[in-house]
Design brief:
By secondary structure, the chain is mostly helical. It contains 13 helices and no strands. The chain has a domain of about 180 residues: Chitosanase, subunit A, domain 1 (Up-down Bundle).
Length: about 260
């Protein structure tokens, strides 16, 4: 009997230890978040003071050349309608003398309209249409929008207009890159990475030499066109930036005072 009581007492003790009836169940202290009206939320948000984030200075971008600037310069050398029998650019593919207009030759305009132009077509070409042709046929192929120096862009654009792809080839010779008449990434990188004045002067000298060589091989052009071409070259001169000009002026003044 005492043994049975001892066993029952042990069983009861084990049950008490397992269930622990003296400990209260845990109570959650997390309350459900109340649902707020949108108007209240908006009003509270309006009362919050936000410190502005510091502004990040945008990276300094290189200003690229402008077609409008280049076109206005080159257009001064390109007049209205003309009809000159000794100029090959006045003939269409049918060997008809139809003339040129606004600096656009008959072959170029033929490519633009998709058929041999007549003299009437050439005469009726508008200045705005000529401008579109200049942009697509002569500015875009030299990647003018990506040239850093406006003066180099002006001069190369003029060379492309006046010489055709030969104008690009002359520049490629100056830059020391492959001469293929295609102004691609390599030519553009070489142009933008070189000293603008040095390239400008070398390109001018090369173009003048080309004109002289051409007039020697084509004597009929010497008296009529060589003076026109040389006057065209005389109108292009590299102008230092205003800051460079100021430095040169100050330098000359200091030199004069200290002599």
């Amino acid at each position: 009997m005492p043994v049975l009581l001892i066993i029952l007492a042990l069983v009861l003790l084990m049950a008490l230890i397992a269930f622990r009836p003296w400990e209260a169940p845990p109570v959650s202290v997390v309350e459900e978040e109340p649902e707020l009206e949108p108007e209240i939320v908006a009003e509270v948000l309006d009362t919050i003071t936000v410190t502005p984030l510091p502004e990040i200075e945008p990276p300094k971008e290189i200003v690229m050349a402008s077609f409008d600037v280049a076109y206005n310069i080159v257009a001064r050398h390109e007049g209205g309608y003309q009809k000159i029998a000794t100029d090959p650019g006045n003939y269409n593919s049918r060997r008809e003398l139809v003339g040129t207009n606004w600096g656009i030759s008959a072959p170029v305009y033929e490519s633009w309209i998709g058929r041999p132009p007549t003299e009437t077509d050439m005469r009726q070409m508008s200045r705005s249409e000529a401008r579109q042709i200049f942009k697509k046929n002569f500015w875009d192929p030299i990647q003018g929008d990506f040239i850093h120096s406006q003066q180099l862009a002006n001069f190369l654009f003029d060379g492309h207009v006046n010489h055709g792809r030969t104008g690009i080839r002359i520049m490629q010779r100056v830059l020391g890159v492959i001469v293929d008449g295609v102004f691609g990434p390599v030519s553009l990188m070489a142009l933008n990475g070189a000293d603008p004045k040095a390239v400008f002067d070398a390109y001018k000298a090369a173009r003048i030499q080309f004109y002289h060589e051409l007039s020697t091989r084509r004597p009929e052009m010497r008296n009529v066109w060589l003076p026109v071409w040389l006057n065209r070259m005389a109108s292009f001169n590299f102008r230092p930036a205003s800051g460079t000009t100021a430095v040169l002026i100050v330098g000359l003044i200091v030199y004069a005072i200290t002599r």
